[in-house]
Amino acid sequence: MISRREFVKTSVLGSAAAVATRRPVFDDAPAPSTYSGPRFGVNYIPRTRWLYCWLDWNQQSIADDLSAIAQLGLDHIRIHCLWPFFQPGINTVSDRALANLHSLLDVADTAGLDVEVTVLAGWMSGLLFIPPFVAPLADPFKDQKDGNIFTSPKVIEAENLLFSRIVETVGKHRRFLGIDVGDELDVLMQIQNCNAASMGDADAWAREMLGYVSEIAPGKFHVNGISHAPWWNDFGFSREQIATTGQASVVHSYVSQEDHDWLLSRSDPALLHLQEYEVELAYAYQTDLSRRVWVEETNISTEFMEPMFRNLLATGKAWGITWWCSHDIDPSISLDKGENELGLLDLQNRPKPIGRKFAELVAEFRRSRPAIVARDKALVIPDRGLSAKPWPADWKYAQPYMNPINRGVSPAIVLASRSKDEDYLRARGISELIQSYG
Questions:
Q1: pTM here?
Q2: What domains lie within the chain, and their CATH numbers?
């Protein structure tokens, strides 16, 4: 699995000159949806005690953190409930953790921040956080599927218990934005055989979870916070399911030379158009053209933040951008060293250069939204087989997307299965198709 540190090492060496010239919006471009975004936020990583703070609560420290985030001009945070801390037993949810969660939303209210609550946070910064009732079980001879996160009826019942207790606790709080069912849980399918799941199983699980949280917390912004892997490969959750369930399609986007071996060089325009490509890719799988894509995690160096944001927002398809992450991590926590310096704020709650740049851009975009670029040309890609190898994905259709950009053309993406649907193409304002394969 490629960590965020590799993205940092490679993105800082890219070239700002790689930004392609944008074409103006045509008068006959399709009208944007009624959505009034974009929104700007950050994944909240507390500067004191990291996410272990759920067991070692310091209300004043949390208040100071959220006040510093609000001063950057952001409007929401995404938080992570480390799963074993909130649910240490299959029938046990921690009252203390729930009380601390409510306290955090109270502080967020004071700071003017909405809160997306990521519940099944079992994978964070390269570390596993799963409760003891989840496989692997102590008995090596017992059926390990009994503890599978995605297929075990007992575990699914426990997950629903945690969702229900969290909604009981904060579901009516005015700062409760919604539930993110889990943080990159598809990773657990890769690294733990005991949590293996077929695409059918994974899709069924996601539909059940999102259906349940929509039932108990109607009208809220519920999503499935997947990693990049299902978008790149035919693995885990299907792209069709991701693009049609929940209130938005989720994208986690990081630039890494090692991860994206289609990058031609450190000055490749893909460094600045990756998030744009992923948003267009997600949109191609959606059936509701008013649905938006949430760039729920992303990060890039200060030097390239501005062109990346402009390219992304020029799609007109982003619900919002949520940066990874709010604060640097205290080295004494002993996480991967590469994770420690990715914050917008330092350990004294002072904005770093990247934090000041983010705040500057957010203020500008709130005053004047970037123009949406008309995309009358679209790259046709197959519905399946976006990578020739399982891991790391080769993204063989990313480079064809970048080729028109090198010529000053900003393409859309259309699935082969929809490429002959004239009504669909007309609704998207597409008049020319670019074939990416034979």
A1: 0.89
A2: 4-20+33-373 (3.20.20.80)
